């Protein structure tokens, strides 16, 4: 479903991704972790082309997304992205946040889009908030709306960049629960997160990034109990 081949990225003379190779199969959940500044966000953002790459190839569902001819709107409909800071449209209601892209990009009928939005809100436990505005919601609620918004496009892949790290501790669980349910529903997911309980429970494998390279890739039980790379050992010690 996702294939990265020898991906390099430079920001001017900063070599941020240094030869990344990765395969994610349909239905797999991959957790990406690593030190701050190691290139995790850049890596995940290249997959729906929020960042371009300097070298290499990225394929999603059989399409070369790094081909300049790729339709980015179509790509982003297939690849949902959930940001650390939610990025909801502040001037739109919860319902309108969710229906905007299905109506504009997918040309969905308004009534059908709204019906689907309410179903998705129900799935994330927020049907009663459909007429609220983002500022009237807690961080955890806003992030659950952001996930529903991503799902409204019926994506084949969902990408998450530290979805719980801007949340107060008591709200982390409700967002992780939505992500867990999504993983169990069979969604292909790539999640940058340091929530190791989540990784242990739902990840098919963990990818550890350091200095723009994947230096370790292992099943969670192996990664947590017996990390191989010195930098990964140090990283896990700091988390505890
Ligand atoms: P992480 O998500 O692992 O913390 P990032 O992918 O955000 O790491 O950043 C990797 C490196 O690239 C850092 O040194 C960061 O400062 C740099 N970087 C990220 N975005 C940009 C940008 N738009 N322009 C220049 N440098 C950037
Ligand atoms: Mg980051």
UniProtKB/TrEMBL annotation:
Domain ABC transporter: 2-236
Gene Ontology MF, one: ATP binding
SMART domains (UniProt xref): AAA
InterPro entries: AAA+_ATPase, ABC_ATPase_HisP-typ, ABC_transporter-like_ATP-bd, ABC_transporter-like_CS, MetN_ABC_transporter-like, P-loop_NTPase
The keyword ATP-binding is annotated on this UniProt entry: yes
Any matching Pfam family: ABC_tran
Sections of the chain in a coiled coil: none
The keyword Nucleotide-binding belongs to this UniProt entry's keyword annotation: yes
Keywords from the named record: ATP-binding, Cell membrane, Membrane, Nucleotide-binding, Transport
Xref: Gene3D superfamilies: P-loop containing nucleotide triphosphate hydrolases
PANTHER family cross-referenced by the UniProt entry: AMINO ACID IMPORT ATP-BINDING PROTEIN, PHOSPHONATES IMPORT ATP-BINDING PROTEIN PHNC
Protein family according to the UniProt entry: Belongs to the ABC transporter superfamily.
Name of this chain's protein: Amino acid ABC transporter ATP-binding protein
Organism name: Crenobacter intestini
């Amino acid at each position: 479903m996702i294939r990265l081949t020898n991906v390099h990225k430079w920001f001017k003379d900063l070599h941020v991704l240094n030869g990344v190779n990765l395969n994610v199969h349909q239905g797999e959940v991959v957790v990406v972790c690593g030190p701050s500044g190691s290139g995790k966000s850049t890596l995940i953002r290249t997959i729906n082309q929020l960042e371009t790459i300097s070298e290499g190839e990225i394929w999603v569902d059989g399409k070369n997304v790094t081909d300049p001819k790729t339709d980015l709107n179509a790509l982003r409909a297939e690849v949902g992205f959930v940001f650390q800071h939610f990025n909801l449209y502040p001037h739109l209601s919860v319902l309108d946040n969710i229906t905007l892209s299905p109506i504009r990009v997918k040309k969905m009928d308004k009534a059908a889009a709204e019906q689907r939005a309410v179903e998705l809100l129900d799935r994330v436990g927020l049907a009663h908030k459909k007429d609220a505005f983002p500022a009237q919601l807690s961080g955890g609620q806003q992030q659950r709306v952001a996930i529903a918004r991503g799902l409204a496009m019926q994506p084949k892949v969902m990408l998450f960049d530290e979805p719980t790290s801007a949340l107060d501790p008591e709200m982390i669980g409700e967002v992780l629960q939505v992500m867990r349910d999504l993983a169990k529903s069979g969604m292909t997911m790539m999640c940058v997160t340091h929530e190791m309980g989540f990784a242990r429970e739902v990840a098919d494998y963990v990818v550890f990034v350091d200095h723009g390279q994947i230096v370790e890739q292992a099943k969670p039980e192996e990664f947590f109990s017996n990390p191989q790379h010195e930098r990964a050992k140090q990283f896990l010690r700091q988390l505890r």
